[in-house]
């Protein structure tokens, strides 16, 4: 025999509006999990090896296309733009949290240390 609380929950689940909201919440959660999973392989392990006194460092952000104003403004929240070369944006003064936030952007392919700071290949 269902209690009053259970019957209220069952009635709520029968509502098309509640079902749509639950589906929307589920889609948002799935999207956030996907962003987290795909971000894990984007950052080169050598990023952040050369830190300044404040714990910040330089990084090159590689895109699959030439960056536009939107992309530059989004990256500017996490560091100073030092220029671009084709599909690469050079950032300076990036914090570790900034790298994590940038890696979650789906349009960023890789984050690597700048050419002059990369260890020589053997």
Describe this structure in words.
The chain has 122 residues and is an alpha+beta fold. The chain is built from four helices and four strands, in the order H-H-E-H-E-E-H-E. It has helices spanning 4-14, 16-39, 69-76, 96-103, and strands spanning 57-63, 80-85, 88-94, 108-112. It has a four-stranded antiparallel sheet. The longest helix is centred in the first third of the chain and has 24 residues, at 16-39.
Keywords:
elongated; alpha+beta; four-stranded antiparallel β-sheet; single chain
Quick summary of this structure?
By secondary structure, this protein is α+β, with helices and mostly antiparallel strands.
Provide the residue-averaged pLDDT: 86
Q: State the distance separating the first and last CA atoms.
A: 73 Å
Helix content: 40-55%
What characteristic shape results from the CA principal axes?
elongated
Contiguous low-pLDDT stretches (5 residues minimum) are none
Tell me the number of helical segments per DSSP (H or I, 4 or more residues long): 4
Describe the largest sheet. 4 strands, antiparallel
Query: Tally of extended strands?
Result: 4
Give the percentage of residues in beta strands. 15-25%
Major sheet: order of its strands? 2-3-1-4
Secondary-structure element pattern, one letter each = HHEHEEHE
**Over all CA atoms, what is the radius of gyration?**
21 Å
Q: Which structural class should the secondary elements be placed in?
A: alpha+beta
């Amino acid at each position: 025999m269902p209690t009053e609380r259970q019957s209220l929950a069952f009635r709520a689940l029968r509502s098309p509006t509640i079902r749509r909201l639950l589906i929307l919440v589920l889609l948002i959660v799935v999207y956030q999990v996907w962003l987290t999973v795909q971000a894990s392989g984007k950052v080169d392990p050598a990023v952040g090896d050369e830190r300044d006194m404040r714990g910040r460092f330089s990084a090159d952000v590689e895109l699959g296309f030439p960056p536009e104003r939107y992309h530059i403004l989004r990256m500017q929240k996490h560091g100073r733009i030092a220029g671009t070369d084709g599909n690469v944006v050079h950032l300076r003064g990036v914090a570790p949290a900034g790298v994590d936030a940038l890696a979650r952007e789906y349009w960023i392919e890789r984050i690597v240390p700048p050419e002059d700071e990369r260890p020589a290949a053997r």
